[in-house]
Write a structure and sequence with these properties.
five-stranded mixed β-sheet, about 30% helix
């Protein structure tokens, strides 16, 4: 429950959110490598939704699975939680990496972010965002307006190394090819990924990580979730909406958005009471995936709180027969 008058989320919310992402990861893990990304996503959504109902909060989904008529659960604007204070905005990605899960590739995670009501950026019709994320050590030097070469040089200087020492994660998409060419031109190590840029953004912001920067055009919802996580870690995200065509640009302008505006971490997620939890589905650089044993499963999670700056790693063992009896769900 919340502290004080119950209007502000307190530290006890953190463990409740870990249970939510654990449930989502367990709900989709049996679909790993089975070639059915829709079933994997539905398993994560159903499990996350059921667990969210038990969380002490009056939440509204700001970043979810889509509009109500296109998403059976966790749609934008849906109320979640048990209805008691605190009042919060909620951003969810029950399974970031549906394709990764379906083909058994690394870095699929279940993730949720929560912040005080009215503090999360709603992207409207914007599907994509150009973004850059970094940890505290180089957060003040990066700029989305700078060239890829300049950002790498600045990062290298602050880290006391050379551009060739800097590792940058980029989504492998044609729209990012100019960025990739610029990074390779300066000698950076470019780690191309096929899906999911929340986990790489978190990795870029974590102290001691092998990732220095996350850059490129990816999903706008993922940008908001990434900003929440990076803010908890003391890093920074900058973003700019990336309309796919003139029609989408016109819709954004009509709705009051400025597609040319640089969005800072605080623009994407305001306030200082932010919680982020993530659980690994498949093994990755950030988290281990769900690991099954004869009678149970082990999950690996991370939970962060911006106000205290605390980051916890949570390994949990789940007795699947007992979980099935409690939830009515199949886990194997």
């Amino acid at each position: 429950m919340a502290g004080g008058n119950g209007s502000v989320p307190d530290r006890n919310l953190a463990l409740e959110l870990v249970r939510v992402t654990e449930a989502a990861a367990l709900g989709c893990a049996r679909w790993i490598g089975r070639g059915d990304k829709e079933a994997a996503d539905q398993g994560a959504v159903d499990a996350m939704r059921a667990m969210l109902d038990t969380v002490t909060m009056a939440g509204v989904v700001v970043i979810g699975e889509g509009e109500k008529d296109k998403a059976p659960m966790l749609f934008n604007g849906e109320e979640v939680g048990n209805g008691e204070p605190p009042e919060v905005d909620v951003a969810v990605d029950p399974l970031e990496g549906t394709r990764l899960t379906s083909v058994g590739q690394p870095n699929a995670i279940a993730v949720i972010a929560v912040a005080e009501r009215g503090t999360m950026f709603f992207p409207g019709a914007a599907v994509y965002m150009d973004k850059i994320a970094a940890g505290a050590e180089i957060a003040g030097a990066i700029s989305i307006d700078a060239s890829p070469q300049d950002n790498v040089r600045r990062a290298a200087e602050l880290k006391g190394g050379k551009p060739t020492d800097i590792t940058v994660v980029v989504l492998d998409r044609e729209r990012n090819q100019k960025l990739i060419d610029g990074l390779r031109d300066v000698g950076a190590k470019v780690n191309l990924i096929t899906d999911g840029d929340v986990a790489p953004a978190i990795a870029a912001a974590r102290q001691g990580s092998t990732v220095d920067l996350m850059m490129g055009i990816g999903g706008t919802p993922e940008g908001v979730i990434a900003a929440a996580a990076v803010k908890c870690l003391g890093g920074a995200v900058q973003g700019r909406l990336w309309p796919r065509d003139d029609d989408e640009r016109a819709k954004l302008i009509e709705a009051g958005y400025d597609p040319d505006r640089v969005l800072t971490t605080d623009d994407l997620v305001g306030g200082e009471n932010i919680f982020v939890a993530a659980t690994g589905v498949t093994d990755g650089a950030l988290l281990n995936g769900v690991r099954f044993s004869k009678d149970g499963a082990v999950t690996d999670s991370i939970v962060m709180r911006s106000r205290s700056g605390t980051v916890r790693r949570v390994e949990a063992y789940h007795h699947l027969e007992k979980l099935s009896r409690l939830s009515g769900r199949e886990y194997r």
